[in-house]
Recover the amino acids of this structure.
């Protein structure tokens, strides 16, 4: 076989391998997004002007492959404004067509607490609309981002002025 034919054969094999690899990656990316719901909020001991909450989130995996994660970060907006954020170094797996419950400690600024207390004092409801954004880190695909919205109720001692 001549050098030209070997080179052409090698190029063809390389192109075929690249095509197969890309089609395999495309099938991995054809996943439904995870669904995340806030299922609980509990007060934690804070320091100074900082309040702490244990934010409990349920992650639902609607895909036929498990999601292995090594860390979680979240940001919680309330009534259109940033309220809390936090991270967890928890490791685990959300099974295929399954769910996992993760507790993430989050920090709440004093300004956010004052704003929510003033709303409650003006007759606002302790039930508030939220938007939760975050990501599961360390998955086979790098990370899995999520966003969800809903309504939650702040702990009773925060709802009273």
């Amino acid at each position: 076989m001549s050098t030209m034919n070997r080179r052409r054969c090698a190029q063809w094999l390389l192109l075929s391998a690249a095509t197969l690899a890309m089609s395999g990656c495309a099938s991995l990316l054809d996943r439904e997004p995870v669904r995340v719901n806030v299922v609980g909020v509990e007060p934690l001991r804070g320091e100074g002007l900082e309040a702490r909450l244990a934010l409990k989130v349920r992650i639902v995996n609607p895909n036929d492959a498990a999601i292995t994660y090594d860390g979680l970060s979240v940001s919680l907006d309330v009534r259109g404004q940033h309220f809390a954020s936090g991270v967890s170094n928890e490791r685990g797996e959300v099974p295929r067509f399954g769910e996992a419950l993760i507790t993430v400690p989050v920090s709440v600024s004093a300004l956010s607490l004052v704003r929510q207390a003033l709303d409650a004092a003006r007759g606002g409801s302790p039930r508030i609309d939220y938007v939760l954004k975050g990501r599961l880190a360390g998955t086979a695909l790098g990370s899995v981002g999520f966003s969800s919205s809903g309504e939650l109720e702040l702990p009773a001692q925060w709802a009273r002025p």
Q: What stands out?
A: The longest strand covers residues 81-94. The chain has three helices and seven strands.
